[in-house]
Design a protein that fits this description.
InterPro entries: L-rhamnose_isomerase, Xyl_isomerase-like_sf, Xyl_isomerase-like_TIM-brl. Keywords: Isomerase, Manganese, Metal-binding. The protein is globular, with a radius of gyration of 22 Å. The two termini are 23 Å apart. It is 48% helix and 9% strand. It has a single domain (5-418), classed as TIM Barrel, CATH 3.20.20. By secondary structure, it is an alpha/beta fold. The relative contact order is 0.16. A six-stranded parallel β-sheet has the order 4-5-7-9-10-11. Helix 3 (75-89) links the parallel strand 1 (50-52) and strand 2.
Length: 427
């Protein structure tokens, strides 16, 4: 489904006077603080977040899955859905493929289709946490860490295959997340499992094109509940450091134990130039994969405060991070959920851009925690939504993406085109 520009312009026109008034007021407030609204709007327009191919369908748990209909059953449909999200939000300019769920048949046709929606291909993702129907050997007891060399080779070969698909599509990075671990004490030799994982990753790293990056993701638990081979950011960093200059840690917001100081992890990894990517979601208990900003918007702002500090530090050696939403949509319309996440991410980014960094550093040097808190919370409490709306309107997006989505009856149109029982591949 494609939205006609005139349709979007007509919807925007109704809300444009109120937006102009709100933006003019905020622009004046920011100017009084020495901030240029137009510069922030430009940064917001440039800030793009990848949508994973599997996230366009209804999520689920091991207890059930309740489809909302109109799900994208093919890679072409998924690209079309991300294209629609991008047209509305002007912030979802990339799609991240997961193999083997989304193996492109005709690579050139897929590239042309993505280009027609102004989309690029972000990191490609391997899958050795599931057994596929035509798979010779099982990953039940691990993949890259498996005791059997033949299983490890199968997992390594799969990752190399994923790289080749990504290279053909124009991607520049590979994300590796492993479910490898153990559910019972004594089941796994921790040292050997780590060494086998490192050896396997070294083989994958050796197959990377010279201009590619490898992102090593971590997770403290699940699906194994006693140990995970790559269980935290320190293990991820240790592996990335041993692999080489083009290997980095990848931080997923949900992949932390409760009350973990994620912003400190972000700052540390950026300080040593090893933060490669970031997966956005929110959680209450663990890896819940909820809508970004649904529960902890202030934490998201604090994380972005460190991200912006690292990105705008001229002495930093950290590359520009890869951004992706990694959330499950069990109850909401997946498209609406993703639009909410895109909004929350850019709100936190915009708020972080308002922080007076010189004043904050002076407060720190003077051991003034009260003033430091005031500086951060003044930025956080600023309603930056007019900046986001201005960025969208300048890029021919929607002033109110979810409002436009509903006025255009997008889900109804998708159900009419794809059926009420279509099921998307993926989780």
């Amino acid at each position: 489904m494609r939205i006609e520009k005139q349709q979007l312009a007509s919807i925007n026109e109704q809300a444009l006077p109120e937006h102009r008034e709100s933006f003019a007021h905020l622009e004046k407030v920011l100017n009084n603080k020495g901030l240029q609204a137009d510069q922030i709007v430009t940064k917001l327009k440039d800030f793009q977040v990848a949508v994973p191919s599997w996230a366009l369908g209804t999520g689920g748990t091991r207890f059930g899955r309740f489809s909302g209909g109109g799900e994208p059953a093919t890679l072409e449909d998924k690209i079309a859905d991300v294209g629609l999200l991008h047209q509305l939000s002007q912030s979802a300019g990339a799609i991240s493929l997961h193999i083997p769920w989304d193996i492109p048949g005709d690579v050139e046709a897929i590239k042309q289709l993505a280009d027609s929606y102004n989309l690029v291909f972000d990191a490609v993702n391997s899958n050795t946490f599931q057994d596929q129907a035509d798979q010779e050997l099982s990953y039940k007891f691990g993949s890259l860490c498996h005791v059997d060399q033949a299983v490890r080779k199968q997992a390594v070969d799969h990752n190399i295959e994923v790289i080749k698909y990504g290279e053909a599509l124009g991607s520049k990075s590979l994300t590796v997340w492993l479910a490898d671990g153990s559910s019972f004490p004594g089941q796994l030799n921790f040292k050997k499992a780590f060494q086998r994982t490192l050896d396997s990753l070294q083989q994958i790293y050796a197959s990377l094109p010279s201009d590619w990056k490898l992102f090593v993701e971590y997770k403290p638990y699940e699906p194994n509940f006693y140990s995970t081979v790559i269980q935290d950011w320190g293990t991820s960093h240790m592996l990335a450091d041993k692999l080489g200059d083009r290997a980095y840690s990848l931080v997923d917001l949900g992949h932390h134990l409760p009350n973990t100081n994620i912003e400190q992890i972000v700052a540390t990894l950026m300080m040593v130039g090893k933060l490669g990517g970031f997966h956005f979601n929110d959680s209450k208990y663990g890896d819940d994969d909820l809508t970004v900003g649904a529960l902890k918007p202030y934490q998201l702002f604090l994380i972005f405060n460190e991200l912006v500090d690292g990105m705008e530090d001229p002495s930093s050696s950290n590359p520009y991070p890869a951004w992706m939403i990694d959330a499950s949509h069990n109850l909401k319309d997946p498209m609406e959920d993703l639009l909410q996440s895109l909004e929350a991410i850019r709100i936190a980014y915009a708020q972080a851009l308002l922080v007076d960094r010189q004043a904050l550093e002076e407060a720190r040097e003077n051991n003034d925690p009260t003033l430091a808190q005031e500086i951060l919370q003044n930025a956080y409490r600023t309603d930056v939504r007019p900046l986001l709306a201005e960025a969208r309107i300048q890029a021919d997006g929607a002033l109110d993406p979810i409002g436009a989505y509903r006025k255009l009856n997008v889900r109804k149109e998708l159900i009419a085109a794809r059926g009420a029982k279509s099921i998307s591949t993926g989780l």
